[in-house]
Write a structure and sequence with these properties.
heterodimer, A: alpha+beta, Heat Shock Protein 90, 3 helices, B: alpha/beta, Transcription Regulator spoIIAA, five-stranded mixed sheet, 5 strands, 39% helix, globular
Chain lengths: 136, 94
């Protein structure tokens, strides 16, 4: 049974989101490294929805499902305009300090840490789905 | 919860969870730093791109003035985030 929380579309909502993550990941005995990664992915993707999506939506639904072999979460942003995640600047890890501009590192981290990520837009809802397999 | 403080002798101490909301607090703090400093991360539990970005911006500014931040006592997960992002190339990490 997934744990679910409705989050306001602002950064203050990170506190209850981390609260749910900490409780659920501890309850299921998720190891520290995996827990760190899933919290990072959830924060980065939630923050991107808050910053980049436009529309009338006031809340984002967060569903977390922890099973013995995998962790899945979904962020559903309600009543928002379409947004192309590919429009976020591509992160170039090899850039020098002088050339580097802010932006893109969050998505790069998420893609490096999780096993699957997908975006779906339908009926004015943007759904981001993430899977990370648990190492045995 | 996140906190950052100057502990004396050019040392900065960060505590707790450095997420996107806390990064605003770190940005304001680092704007006041204008010389080399050691950043003690022993009590820092978590970092995301918001915190990385603020540390990077401060390092870029300081290095242009011949100064630098040195990071100390990063936990393994935070160190891994620096490595994945390639930010370990921009900081001396002790």
């Amino acid at each position: 049974m997934p744990a679910t929380i409705e989050l306001h579309r602002n950064l203050d909502a990170l506190e209850p989101m981390f609260g749910l993550l900490d409780a659920e990941l501890a309850r299921h005995g998720v190891d520290d490294r995996t827990a760190f990664g899933i919290k990072l992915a959830a924060e980065e993707l939630f923050t991107n929805l808050v910053r980049h999506n436009t529309g009338k939506g006031k809340t984002i639904s967060f569903h977390l499902d922890v099973s013995p072999d995998r962790l899945d979460f979904e962020l559903i942003d309600h009543d928002v305009d379409p947004f192309d995640a590919k429009s976020i600047p591509r992160y170039d890890k090899g850039q020098s300090m002088a050339d580097r501009e802010p932006g893109g590192v969050g998505v790069y981290l998420v893609r490096s840490i999780v096993d699957k990520i997908s975006y779906q837009y339908e009926n004015r809802e943007m759904t981001v789905s993430v899977t990370k397999f648990r190492k045995t | 919860m996140f906190d950052v403080e100057l502990t004396g002798e050019g040392r900065i101490r960060m505590v707790g969870r450095l997420d996107a909301a806390a990064a605003v607090q770190l940005e304001q703090f680092l704007l006041e730093i204008d010389s080399s400093a050691v950043v003690d991360c022993e009590a820092l539990d978590y970092i995301s791109s918001g915190g990385l970005g603020e540390l990077f911006a401060a390092q870029k500014r300081l290095k242009s003035q011949g100064e630098a931040l040195t990071l100390r006592n990063l936990n393994p997960h935070i160190r891994e985030v620096f490595a994945i992002a390639g930010f370990d190339a921009f900081f001396e990490i002790e």
